[in-house]
Amino acid sequence: MPSPASRRTAAAFAVLIALAALVLPPAPLAAQGAAPYDLVIANGRAVDPETGLDAVRWVGVRAGKIAAISATPLKGKETLDARGMVVAPGFIDLHAHGQYMAAARMQAFDGVTTALELEAGTLPIAAAYAQVAKEGRPINYGFSAAWLFGRIAEKEHMEPDGDIAFFQNAQKKKGWQYTIASPEETSRIMARVERGLKEGALGIGVLAGYAPGYGRKEYYALAQLAKKYDVPTFTHVRYLSVIEPQSTFEAFEELVSLAASTGAHMHISHLNSNSTRDIPIIAEMIRGAQQRGLKITTEAYPYAAGSTVVGAEIFRGNWRERMGGAQASDIEVNGKPYNDSTLAEVQEKAPGTWIVVHFMRPTESAQDQAYLDQAVLFPGGAVASDAMPWTSQGKTITEDVWPLPADAFAHPRSAGTFTRFLRDYVRERKKVDLREGLSRVTLTPARILEGSVPQMKQKGRLQVGKDADVVVFDLATVSDKATFTAPNQRSVGMKHVVVNGVPVIREGELVRGALPGRAIRRAVVR
Fold first, then answer.
1. 213 pLDDT higher than 50
2. Those residues with Cβ within 8 angstroms of residue 134's Cβ, 6 or more apart along the chain or in another chain
């Protein structure tokens, strides 16, 4: 008869086996004699920022999910060779204005598998989701509820239609940028935004910099609404200025105070282009707020030039001084700079024209590069593109056109943000290692959203059970190619890009008919 000690040993061993069954992944299904996987990504360097996995693995996909990650070969109905390549979660872009087919395809070559319009957002939300679902997309998509669209609608009696062209057309109006909303108007604006949240919006887009004269009570009401629904606000802060009063520093103080007073999650859009050369003191303020428990998150893109409409309020009045000595020549289209005369003319005749504006010159100044690096590498921050729609002959490309017309124009970040970050910050200058670099484009943006958007818990990870959004790239060659003078150049180095288990880039080429993108959306409240 077994002794008490041996019985205790056997019981303890049984407990360990049970615990192991809970924490260890099951043996690959294919190895158990099951049917082949729908897709196998074979023999690549698998990197998962959350678990720390960094080893050669085979990834098996079934029904749009990662079903196995194996150290031994797997059998699939289709196999993608990843030998010598990095296999990572698909990149998540929190800030993508180009919500059209052509723009999505360009971003796929940049490794993006989920592109969300959060800073501006749109209204009505139901219409925007319905339109994109009707057209289909190669990558995942989603929207926030646009405060600014609601404000324009109430101030100018223009009804939004779910398209960013509404914002461009509103530049011809002059009442919504500086007039304070009455209590009744504020109530109606909030009702529009709340309707968007009930229709599944991912948060509240706050383009404060385009209507800097809005009331502080209006912004407070937005933060209260965000807290009510436990969603983030995605803010382009009120001012763009290095001089006081009405400086960018002051605008960030406003955001910090609202996070403290309401408890809302306040997300800062493009920390780099709003902070510019004041990033040292602004970063200190934001970090201090985070350390004291305020829910503030950040993003930035690895460029020292922005893009917007030429009629934006930031280019009015003493904008040159407020931007630290800017000139008309810092604003350009297709690499062609304006002068004072041509800038004034286009602002009058075509204020909705998309332009590029250089707010620093890192290629000419080591200090400017250091400022940019501080914003891009802010602790815990995400990389996001602020990708713009593509235009041709002055018109937005909304059709299913591929390849893009030769004259297609957009900020180069619309094609190369993520590959530029990998090339510059990870491979060439080694500012961060590969795991940290991948975290900033996958896990970090997923975590920013997942508290309010359950779908995002399935994104940004290379793990069994997660969504099969996967990129396969050559770390030695991955790179942006788009420039300010020739933006219409897709990135290189992405060998395969898989969205929901379906390849949209295979062997470096677009799979023209692949439209597996799905809506990222909160639950609709009836």
1. yes
2. none
Q: What pTM was estimated for this model as a whole?
A: 0.93
Provide the percentage of residues in the chain whose pLDDT is more than 70: 93
Tokens of 121: 């957002």
Taking residues 91-98, report their average pLDDT. Answer: 98
Q: 16 vs 25, 27, 391, CA distance in Å?
A: 15, 18, 61
d(CA 340, CA 299): 32
Residue with tokens 């800062």: 268
The answer for residues whose C-beta is within 8 angstroms of residue 101's C-beta and 6 or more apart is: 135, 136, 137, 138, 398, 399, 400, 401
Model pLDDT, residue 5: 44
CA distance 372 to 237: 18
pLDDT on residue 21: 34
Please, are residues 255 and 235 in contact by the beta-carbon 8 Å criterion? yes
Q: Among the residues of 266-365, which ranges form H helices?
A: 271-275, 279-291, 319-322, 340-349
State the Cα–Cα distance between residues 154 and 191, nearest whole angstrom: 11
Query: CB under 8 Å to 226, separation ≥6 — which residues?
Result: 203, 204, 232, 233, 262, 264, 265
As beta bridge partners, residue 255 has none
477-497 confidence digits (pLDDT tens) = 999 999 999 999 999 999 999
| pLDDT at position 26 over 70 | no
Three-state DSSP class for residue 59: strand
CA nearest neighbour of 300 among 312, 311, 320, 286: 286
Q: What is the rounded distance in angstroms from the CA atom of residue 355 to the CA atom of residue 308?
A: 6
pLDDT recorded at residue 34: 60
What does the pLDDT look like over 305-328, one tens digit per residue? Answer: 999 999 999 999 999 999 999 999
* Model confidence pLDDT, tens digit, residues 158-170: 999 999 999 999 9
The 3-state DSSP class for residue 196 equals helix
Contact assessment for residue 368 and residue 277, using Cβ atoms and an 8 Å cutoff: yes
d(CA 184, CA 155): 12
**Cα distance between residue 186 and residue 180, in whole Å:** 9
Rounded to an integer, what distance in angstroms lies between the CA atom of residue 138 and that of residue 159? 29
d(CA 90, CA 92): 7
Average pLDDT over residues 432-441: 98
Cβ neighbours for 288, distance < 8 A, ≥ 6 positions apart: none
* Strand locations in 151-304 (E): 204-207, 233-236, 266-268, 296-300
How far is Cα 72 from Cα 341, in angstroms, rounded to an integer? 66
Say if residues 43 and 58 touch (Cβ distance below 8 Å). Answer: yes
Are the CB atoms for 229 and 451 separated by under 8 Å?
Answer: no
Average pLDDT of the segment spanning 279-304: 98
- Residue 493 bridge partners (DSSP): none
Residue 222's Cα: distance from chain center in Å? 21
Cβ-count burial 309-335 (b if 16+ within 10 Å, e if not)? bbbbbbbeeebeebbeebebebbbbbe
